[in-house]
Amino acid sequence: MLNFVxxxxxxxxxxxxxxxxxxxxxxxxxxxxxxxxxxxxxxxTDLTVVNNNAGxxxxxxxxxxxxxxxxxxxxxxxxxxxxxHFDAKYKAGEIELELxxxxxxxxxxxxxxxxxxxxxxxxxxxTTLAEGKETRFLDGKWQVFETPIHADxxxxxxxxxxxxxxLVYRKTARNFGPIMAAAAKQxxxxxxxxxxxxxxxxxxxxxPGIYVNTxxxxxxxxxxxxxxx
Amino acid sequence: xxxxxxxxxxxxxxLGRDDLARLVAKDIAPGSFVNxxxxxxxxxxxxxxxxxxxxxxxxxxxxxxxxxxxxDDIDGDLINAGKIPVTELPGASYFHHADSFAIxxxxxxxxxxxxxxxxxxxxxxxxxxTGAPGAIPAVGGAMDLATGAKDVFVMMTLLTREGASxxxxxxxxxxxxxxxxxxxxxDKAVFLTGPDGVTVRETFxxxxxxxxxxxxxxxxxxxxxGLQDQAAP
Lengths: 229, 233
Known about the structure:
The complex is a heterodimer of chains A (229) and B (233). By secondary structure, chain A is α/β, with parallel strands linked by helices. Chain A has one domain (3-116, 150-228): Glutaconate Coenzyme A-transferase. Chain A contains seven helices and twelve strands. Chain A has helices at residues 8-12, 33-42, 61-66, 84-91, 102-114, 177-183, 224-228; strands spanning 3-5, 20-23, 47-50, 70-75, 96-99, 119-121, 135-138, 141-146, 151-161, 167-168, 184-194, 214-217. In chain A, a hairpin with a 2-residue loop joins strand 7 and strand 8 (141-146). Residues 223-229 of chain A have low confidence and may be disordered. Chain B is α/β, with parallel strands linked by helices. Chain B has one domain (9-221): Glutaconate Coenzyme A-transferase, CATH 3.40.1080.10. Chain B is built from four helices and 14 strands. In chain B, strands 1, 2, 3, 4, 5, 6, 9, 11, 12, 13 and 14 form an eleven-stranded mixed β-sheet that branches. Residues 226-233 of chain B have low confidence and may be disordered. Chain A: Keywords: Transferase. Chain A: Belongs to the 3-oxoacid CoA-transferase subunit A family.
């Protein structure tokens, strides 16, 4: 069921304590900042968050972590020059970390959306990140068994949605959006613009509306300057 | 074969970072699809020529990446894996993260160039984690790049600040990939690594004999074993 809502608060209202939440974005590109802010305000806690990083600076996911709402992070690259809120929680033992090679993160998310129960990949073989996992010698290489990552909710950002929930993205802001949309039970999308059904060229649709549940328009959805306006 | 073989010394002085980047760029075959890691490998892009027709991949979802963006060209939606604003070249394409890593993991990239803490005699790579107690681990795409590209080039200084060789018999840092590195470009020499051990293609400001004193694994001279790389300058 596809809903168009008027506010980011309404968009995230159904997110329950203990949920697994995928959050799109790589760096600031494609991060649904307004939806994350609304998630912070709605008070949901005890969350498992799936994102490439673990928050930067004093905004978005970093604040969710700072406020103690995140019990576990599943990500590939938590440590950055400005990931001080995650660093503090991690060093205090107040947040769990599942560190996943970035390609495994993407493929495990994709697998969840595609109904795949797991897959073998050479990535990580012989490393500490593959410890305890099943391995097989396939196609001339040692490979490691990896399982899908499912989520209750995905929060993503796209450029435009049409009336059917079809999405198009912009440049490298696409990143995790399409695969997270498919992997989550409920996909909530913030877009800069909602266009009439038929206005998107079907050849150019990146995420078909079947994967989308809730759409909210956030004016100028993007840069910090636009956010402040 | 004598270790006093000096014909592979191609420069009287060690190479600086830019000279090394220039050498790596020259060694990349025309038409290649290449991923340059964060840090020193990024310098290679400064020396790729138009005639080489190289397509750069960035793992956050783009082929055909152009130079770093400046001024009005800076666009928050167009960044590289280091989260630096970049530009797009004619013929560029965008794709989602799983497709981007399928390009890598599916063996479609010809070369990736990475930095490293250590490389073992058989091409094991350590570049993601020092393993120090209390260090927060972060891996990003390093393990995918190490195992996915057809050729994995490493760029690094040969010695640590303490003077220890980063080419080692076996990595003491946690490994990123096993037997994946094919070449190591350092300030003192270019090494070819593989199941048969380490071959020195050329040296800079040092003889093979002097190099052997620094590196704790047996070194062979490329010229002497007939492995002189065709692409060498």
